[in-house]
Write a structure and sequence with these properties.
Elements (H helix, E strand, L loop, with lengths): L6 H9 L5 H13 L1 H21 L18 H17 L14 E13 L11 E3 L3 E13 L4 E14 L2 E12 L9 E3 L4 E13 L5 E13 L7 E4 L2 E5 L5 E8 L28 E6 L36 E21 L15 E7 L16 E8 H5 L10 E8 L5 E10 L15 E8 L1
Parallel strand pairs: 5-6
Antiparallel strand pairs: 1-2, 1-3, 3-4, 4-5, 5-7, 6-7, 7-8, 8-9, 8-10, 10-11, 11-16, 12-13, 13-16, 13-17, 13-18, 14-15, 14-17
Length: 456
């Protein structure tokens, strides 16, 4: 018996978040540059998905079909089918082999823009047919695929996507936006390692990361998301975003834009609260800067927990933020362990000198929790050292489909869990990253006005 491919251990350590930073860098470089490693990675994911499916009776994902060996793959498929039929005949199976079936066309390429293919020999043109089981591997650019059902998917490189049927596909890695607004396209399905996303009309964005994170953002209409271990599917509508972390509790992230007044009114999310568990008035909660350089004009960090946000669209003294081009962290001590049910984060900014510049309203952070009553080690930062990943928020991706001036100036994000509580935590850490630049090379940091935590 052949021994397992030694590269599998590298992939396993990466997916299980056991790899050191240097190992993660080598892994990402190999995934970009080594076709053999990439094929090994896809095979590993196929096997893992099959194992998960066999263990979850209520959630079964069929394996991903293998990718075509070369761009000119029709002849190879016909030869393989003929060889198989010959072998069966020689083995005395007692039936006349059928002629090999023609590959099924399930979609067509309908647009290409600045595409760079992972396999340099790949040639593609608008109008080319796409077949069941064919894998599209794009390292840069974008392409549009129109399925036989009428669904239209825009794939953004880098991406690995396999066409399963005239109305479905498997997203191994990357991001895609789908529009399914015809009756025939209803039920269009995108599968990832950790979710099955079914469109019921009409537009959504699906993303899959190498570490197993799956995310869906509903642009218009409604989708249904099936996840492993959950008997009931999640129904999401316009404005909802669902993140599923591999091997962890399923986290629901809702993102909304406000009306742009000091009242902080949103379609469904509440305004900043003065009676939540994170409010300093309770006498329990305390916030501080965990790491990163706080901007000189920023307000004191306690303003994140004072029960209200900014009073105007350009109010740095009532905001908390870091220096441009720098990451930073907010550490919140709730004073005691709580079953956290939801965490809301608010921001507001519009540059008075440039009314179209709303970059510093963007929320871009990863949220971690530290279990237990003991304080985390001084200076410790995630991942590791006892910190658990709760969820990730990037409103830049959610709102950023058009020019910068389309970004809302007032934003709110809310993190909760599909099963009730996010987890039991005393300490929460926001790992905050700069927002994409409005112009030039500068990345500006968001002006955060309030953080609310609810629990029991």
């Amino acid at each position: 018996m052949n021994s397992p491919d030694p590269r599998w251990e590298v992939i396993r350590r990466h997916l299980d978040r056991q790899a050191a930073p240097a190992e993660r860098a080598d892994f990402e470089a190999s995934l970009r540059e080594d076709p053999a490693f990439r094929r090994c990675y896809i095979r590993y994911l196929n096997i893992e998905v099959a194992l998960q499916a066999s263990a979850q009776a209520e959630y079964r994902l069929p394996p991903v079909p293998p990718p075509p060996r070369t761009p000119a793959w029709r002849g190879a498929l016909g030869k393989a089918a003929a060889a198989l039929a010959l072998l069966l005949g020689l083995a005395g199976w007692g039936f006349w082999p059928r002629p090999p079936a023609e590959p099924e066309i399930v979609a067509h390429l309908t647009a290409l823009q600045d595409c760079r293919w992972v396999h340099s020999a790949t040639q593609a043109a608008v109008g080319d047919p796409l077949y069941r089981g064919q894998t599209l591997e794009l390292s840069a650019g974008r392409l549009e695929v129109t399925f036989a059902s009428g669904a239209v998917a825009t794939l953004l490189g880098p991406i690995i996507f396999t066409l399963d049927s005239p109305n479905s596909g498997f997203l191994t890695l990357g991001q895609m936006q789908t529009r399914a607004d015809s009756p025939q396209a209803k039920g269009f399905t995108v599968r990832t390692r950790t979710a099955r996303i079914v469109d019921v009309g009409t537009e959504f964005i699906a993303a899959a990361a190498a570490d197993g994170l799956s995310r869906v953002d509903v642009v218009r209409g409604e989708v249904v998301v099936h996840t492993p271990g959950q008997r009931h599917a999640q129904h999401l509508s316009q404005g909802d975003a669902l993140s599923v972390e591999s091997g962890q509790a399923q986290v629901l992230v809702r993102i909304e834009s406000g009306e742009g007044t000091a009242a902080f009114r949103f379609p469904t999310l509440p305004p900043p609260s003065a009676s939540d568990a994170a409010d300093v008035a309770t006498g329990w909660a305390r916030a501080k800067i965990a790491f990163g350089p706080q901007a000189e004009s920023s307000g004191e960090v306690a303003k994140l927990c004072n029960g209200h946000a900014q009073g105007s669209a350009d109010d740095p003294g009532e905001s908390v933020y870091f220096e441009s081009n720098q990451s930073g962290g907010f550490l919140l001590d709730l004073g005691r362990s709580l079953q956290v049910t939801s965490i809301n984060t608010y921001s507001w900014h519009r540059n008075q000198g440039n009314q179209g510049d709303r970059v510093r309203a963007t929320q871009k952070f990863t949220l971690y929790g530290f279990r237990g009553e003991a304080a985390p080690p001084e200076g410790s930062t995630p991942p590791g050292t006892g910190w658990e990943l709760i969820g990730r928020v990037n409103t830049d991706e959610f709102f950023g489909r058009g020019p910068q001036r389309s970004q809302p100036e007032q934003q709110a994000s809310s993190i909760s869990a599909t099963g009730g509580a996010v987890g039991r935590y005393r300490y929460l850490l926001w790992d905050v990253r700069p927002s994409r630049a409005f112009h030039g090379a500068v990345e500006d940091n968001t002006l955060y006005g309030e953080i609310d935590v609810f629990g029991y």
